[in-house]
């Protein structure tokens, strides 16, 4: 896709996010809005997916295709929207988000058999370990697929992250691209006040990772360029860490930059104000 086309998809995904969270009056809009460009660029441009006659085909094994794991599972609205818009399941199913008997739980789960979901996530700190297992399996199987994983910056306060960070370069897991969503916010406030991560790039470099920074993580062209660069550095004995600088709540002016929108749903008036800022490009569900 051209950048302009990707931007149109991103606008619709943002509409989906605020409508989904409003519809059940529960969920996490802030981080979802901030990571929209990344997930749209991955699924609509960068990732190699299994397809049959132009339609996405999903299986749990994921052989001979690229895989994505969402470690910060609370931003499920953006993932569900992107999966639906990419054709994994009907877009109309987005209306069931967080409702009884829905496959679209607040945090992704596998027992719902939702296409695109391979692990239950949202218990922070676990996604990098899972991604490493999948990437290692691909190497053992001579599978050329790439494994991607997204984590939050607040999530870097979890100890399991750093066990995985040690494992990856030691075992030369060089078919892995990890992302940290650096929006500087977590549920209780700014990350620098809750638990200062300090220089994450220097930390990962000290652990043996190759580090790339995307300074404009809400600019589609910058994200696409960063993904191209990250892929080009694979296969040289080191995992890749991408520091993705985003804005919490990006795209909706009254949500931007505040931890208060980490996990709060908009009311009717706020929904209308948000939708007025986001073009309907693919049709609302």
UniProtKB/TrEMBL annotation:
Which InterPro entries does the entry link to?
THDP-binding, Transketolase_N
- Asked whether the UniProt record includes Coiled coil among its keywords, one would answer no
Sorted UniProt keywords: Thiamine pyrophosphate
Per the record, the domain of life is Bacteria
Which parts of the chain are coiled coil? Answer: none
Cofactor(s) needed for function? thiamine diphosphate
Q: What's the short name of a Pfam family annotated to this entry?
A: Transketolase_N
The segment(s) forming the Transketolase N-terminal domain are 8-274
Q: Does the keyword Transmembrane apply?
A: no
Instruction: Name the PANTHER family for this protein.
Output: TRANSKETOLASE N-TERMINAL SECTION-RELATED
In the record, the note on similarity to other proteins reads: Belongs to the transketolase family.
The protein in question is named Transketolase
Which organism is this entry from? Answer: Dyadobacter jiangsuensis
């Amino acid at each position: 896709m051209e950048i302009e086309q990707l931007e149109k998809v991103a606008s619709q995904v943002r509409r989906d996010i605020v409508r989904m969270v409003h519809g059940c009056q529960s969920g996490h809009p802030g981080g979802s809005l901030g990571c929209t460009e990344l997930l749209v660029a991955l699924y609509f441009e960068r990732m190699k997916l299994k397809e049959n006659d132009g339609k996405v085909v999903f299986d749990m094994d994921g052989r001979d295709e690229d895989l994505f794991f969402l470690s910060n599972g609370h931003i499920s609205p953006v993932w569900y929207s992107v999966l639906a818009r990419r054709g994994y399941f009907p877009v109309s199913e987005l209306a069931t988000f967080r409702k009884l008997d829905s496959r679209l739980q607040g945090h992704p789960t596998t027992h719902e058999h939702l296409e695109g979901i391979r692990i239950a996530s949202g218990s922070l700190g676990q996604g990098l370990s899972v991604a490493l297992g999948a990437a290692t399996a691909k190497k053992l199987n001579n599978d050329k697929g790439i494994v991607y994983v997204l984590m939050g910056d607040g999530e870097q306060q979890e100890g399991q992250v750093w066990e995985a960070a040690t494992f990856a370069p030691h075992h030369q897991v060089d078919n892995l691209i990890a992302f940290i969503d650096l929006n500087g916010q977590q549920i209780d406030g700014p990350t620098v006040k809750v638990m200062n991560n300090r220089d994450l790039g220097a930390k990962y470099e000290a652990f043996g990772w190759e580090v790339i920074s995307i300074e404009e993580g809400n600019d589609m062209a910058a994200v696409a360029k960063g993904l191209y660069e990250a892929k080009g550095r694979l296969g040289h004995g080191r995992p890749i860490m991408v520091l993705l600088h985003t804005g919490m709540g990006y795209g909706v002016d009254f949500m931007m930059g505040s931890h208060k929108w980490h996990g709060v749903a908009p009311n009717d008036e706020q929904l209308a104000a948000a939708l007025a800022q986001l073009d309907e490009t693919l049709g609302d569900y």
